[in-house]
Amino acid sequence: MDLRERLGFVDNNVWLWGRVGAQAWWDARQARGALARDPDRFAEVKVFCNFIGYPRSGHSVVSSILDAHQAAVFSHRLDALGHLKAGVAPEAVFHMIARNAERFARDGRKLTAYAYPVPGQHQGRGGRPTVIGDQEAKWATLRLSRDPELLARARFRHAPRLAFIHVVRNPFDNIATLANRTQSALESAMETYFQLCAGVERVKARYPEQVLDIRHEELVAAPRAQIRRLGEFLGLTVDEPYLEACAGLVYPAASQSRASRSWSGALVRDVEQRAGRHPHLAGYAYDR
């Protein structure tokens, strides 16, 4: 890749996190008043869902599909568990999730070179949701890996069921995209990736019946079937208009970003060997 191509991959991570962080700070301070005016806004929440896994796996498209459902609200890059850990009350975090989703929808759910609006559906307009959650997978994985009882300590008013969505893609594509976006070496991106793999395994051990694996490649190949799986897992009714609109959001082919970098034979073997230790990566290889 030449310099121009590499610069095209550079992530705007600092700017995104800075903007979301400033907005979250304001929303946290407005939460008490908002909840006092409407104390039952989140009384119908039955599921609190967090994504776990790795950046650049397809979380944005999956969370955008879920946020399009009339009974669901999903924030983008909020780091909801970070706010819970900092002592923000769960209902206030729910308020922050809803405000984040409203803003993201108002901006066309645009992120870097991609946008994830679902026309004619309910993005940013969750009303009184039964499912609420956050798309930020990396930090959720690290926080739960380091503090497995974080959610157990949270004082939820209505005790929602905890659920986790784990979006998986070919590790070579994931590692290459991580390296491109952070302008780092493949070896460094590989270490980050497998650190998060280990974190996912710890979350699964703590919540063995509450994690849904979604393969990005299967979502691309059969979006309707995977969207139905998501709805069933979260207790959401999936009707035909919603299914049709959301299936249209999914790109027709999975990007094979592994081809954007040069891989040594030793590095390919190392990734394949380490991937073999994680059941959720079964069947993946550099050439498939």
CATH A-level architecture: 3-Layer(aba) Sandwich
Number of DSSP strand runs? 7
Helix/strand class: alpha/beta
Helical residue percent band: 40-55%
Mean pLDDT: 90
- Order of strands, widest sheet: 2-5-1-6-7
| CATH fold category name | Rossmann fold
Please name the defining characteristics of this protein.
288 residues; alpha/beta; Rossmann fold; five-stranded parallel β-sheet; two-stranded antiparallel ribbon; 7 strands; transferase; TPST-like; P-loop_NTPase; Sulfotransferase
Structural overview:
This protein has 288 residues and is of the alpha/beta class. It has a single domain (3-281), classed as Rossmann fold (3-Layer(aba) Sandwich), CATH 3.40.50.300. It has 13 helices and seven strands. The protein has a five-stranded parallel β-sheet, with helices on both faces. It has a two-stranded antiparallel ribbon with strand order 3-4. A hairpin with a 2-residue loop joins strand 3 (110-111) and strand 4. Helix 6 (137-146) crosses helix 9 (186-206), helix 8 (171-182) packs across helix 9 (186-206) and helix 11 (223-234) packs across helix 12 (240-247). The longest helix has 25 residues, at 13-37. The radius of gyration is 19 Å and the shape is globular. Residues 1-11 have low confidence and may be disordered. InterPro entries: P-loop_NTPase, TPST-like. Keywords: Transferase. It holds the Pfam family Sulfotransfer_3. This is Sulfotransferase. It comes from Caulobacter segnis.
